């Protein structure tokens, strides 16, 4: 540091990479290793792994203070951030229902006769109506109103865990009722 000017000598300034250069170097140096690590964490889901890698590097970009004294991001910091992002992505994916392709839905309903479908609909509605109010209201909120657990809990003024357990018991009671009436599920 030059005491007269308060700045670093030119040799010191040029030796440290700029923020952009450090990020590019982090991608070139750590990117392939991070991607392999993320592929293992995401069970081979390359798209998700690449998204997590990109988000990791964006966080590095937004946190220049995480750079080491030589101006580089440490591999440990990058791996820790990547692992935390991967956990968030995996948990979010587990919370969503599995998506079904249109082809499978068409196959399922292709053989159903319209009269049978109407009779089945009436039987299911009657079975839902026979449920206790506390179970029926949770089931209606989640499946018929297509609300999230949090929204249903707010509408019913009960905790989210209560909505989940009531939905579970409602489905079980509905299954038992329909099975005793001759439905095969």
Automatic annotation (TrEMBL):
A Pfam family this chain is assigned to: Sigma70_r2
Single Gene Ontology MF annotation: sigma factor activity
NCBIfam families: sigma70-ECF
Keyword annotations of the record: DNA-binding, Sigma factor, Transcription, Transcription regulation
Domain RNA polymerase sigma-70 region: residue ranges: 27-94
SUPFAM superfamilies listed in its UniProt record: Sigma2 domain of RNA polymerase sigma factors (SSF88946), Sigma3 and sigma4 domains of RNA polymerase sigma factors (SSF88659)
Gene3D superfamilies: 1.10.1740.10, Winged helix-like DNA-binding domain superfamily/Winged helix DNA-binding domain
UniProt GO BP: DNA-templated transcription initiation
The protein's name in its UniProt record: RNA polymerase sigma-70 factor (ECF subfamily)
Similarity comment text for this entry: Belongs to the sigma-70 factor family. ECF subfamily.
Annotated source species: Catenuloplanes indicus
Span of domain RNA polymerase sigma factor 70 region 4 type: 122-174
PANTHER family with a match to the protein in the record: ECF RNA POLYMERASE SIGMA FACTOR SIGL, RNA POLYMERASE ECF-TYPE SIGMA FACTO
